[in-house]
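MODEL INPUT / OUTPUT PAIR
PAIR INDEX: 1
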Amino acid sequence: MQEMLQDYLNYLSVERGLSQNTLESYARDLRQYLQYLKEKKNIEIKETTQATVIGYLLQLQAKGKATATLSRSLAAIKSYYHFLFREAKIERDPTINLDAPKQEKRLPRVLSVEDVSNLLEQPDLKTPAGIRDRAMLEVLYATGLRVSELVSLKISDLNLEMGYIKCFGKGSKERIVPLGSVASKYVKHYLEHARKFLASSLNEETLFLNHHGHRLTRQGFWKIIKKYAESINLENDITPHTLRHSFATHLLENGADLRSVQEMLGHADISTTQIYTHLTKSKIKEVYEKAHPRAL
């Protein structure tokens, strides 16, 4: 089973070009499922039935796993069986009629424009690390990048004169995102006055560096944004993704069209972007109820 799993992961990496994070997620979910087959059922992957898969999902549910976790696990298992069936490793696909459990749509946390401005002003611009942090926060809010895309930026991905950056999203898909004059100003300031004090090598191409002179990790930036959020008493669930959500919502509130926001966020399906329309509708209703004399 391990050999077949490795073949599948190689297929995802080479032929479908999935990111390392997605590959690790698929591998983790599938190894847990295969462990279940070995320890609980003592059966091979070729012998499994639909009842086997359902039994595994019920076990996850009994352990208190969220609906989103169940859906993600089933998606990985279905994709794996589909691959094995196509490669003639199994005679039938036991997941062919299995649907993922329905999930409640949770609206993402969004900051107000005032809270975003306050957060972005927290870094100390008298230190190289503070200048870097301000530049990163400005870029994140100006572009709506995923944090993995932000920390992967190279100097060559910047075009400050034209005001855009190039990034590589899920599936290594390239997209061009406007940067804006404010973020461009802080990135330029970082390049001229801070990066040279962080870099350990002249050959380092990564844009944002940690104190060792290497690429900043996602976890490292998560700690940075937490620190600044706590300094202004924002609620403790602020993450780098909060600025991405705020970016999209503020654009839509100010008249941007959904397709443009989808393009900037790098969403393959517009239905993923549509969740932000619920947020803007809520905002419109709130404004109406406060402003209209007969609203209440």
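PAIR INDEX: 2
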Amino acid sequence: MPQPGTALEKLGFLTIGLFDGQDPGPGHQVTLAMIDLGERLGFDSAWLRHRHLQFGISSPVAIMAAASQRTTRIELGTAVTPLGWENPLRLAEELATVDILSGGRINPGVSVGPPMNWDSVRGALYPGTAGDEDFSYERVSRLLRFVAGENAASFAGTVGFEQFSARVEPHSPGLRSRMWYGAASLSSAKWAGENEVNLLTSSVVKAEESEDFAEVQLSQIRTFRDSHPAGAAARVSQGLVVIPTDSASPAQREKYAAYVAARTPRTAAPVGPARMMFARDILGTSEEIAEALYAHVAFREVTEVAFALPFSFEHEDYVQILTDMATRLGPLLGWTPKG
């Protein structure tokens, strides 16, 4: 478990992939350029948030496909794809295709529940069938079964000159072991463990046993591992917002501080009927961030992270932050860049 003297094994980053709605091309190219930079800097993984009807990545599978053809090593993930918007069979086909194209580097993270702003999109998303859609864990189970190669059809054979398979094609044998679930509650963490997927934790949790964010996240991680057949070896990735300032300009430091100050009030107490809690953004030099992380009891339970990048910064800011993460913060955590 990461403590001073114990190495962090995997370092990744997470981006929302913002773009201008009137000119979306440059924003998407910036996202691809960030993944390229991440590979050059030695990051283990790059993760994409999934956003629908917003000015962020609506099709991370397409972005991963593009990135897979311009990189050779870095792993590519989603954190997370909300399955309420997806057909599990079709998504299984797309994920397997990109995994094959990437040489087995895809790490799909998913979650369930009704789509965000459900009442405003249900008619467009599921006209005539919205009331019949199942947004429970069974939707994830269907996806996992298809990815694993279980039958999706009752027929396999030849019809005329055409060959048909009963399972999803292409089939990527290693993909099932690289499926992740984004959990914010104890019940989701338990389900993820019992169903042998990897666990994504983020800067948002449900305050169930405590109002101390780190303690809540620690409880979820331990519940997951207690429920997983692999026990302590079950994979968990933590995704806090981390902003190193080592090589930042004075103007960047001022902007970063204002960003964090504006977001800090929401971390004071659980929010809304669901009692969601937000972690504080960690801003400072790499030495200060490393000290804060080692004091975080949930961080000390993980061996891999995917630090979330702030949503609204400029490309040059992300270059500075990623460079500091890879060249200064990562080594302080015992991490070694990959070549």
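PAIR 2 NOTE: The chain has a mean pLDDT of 96.
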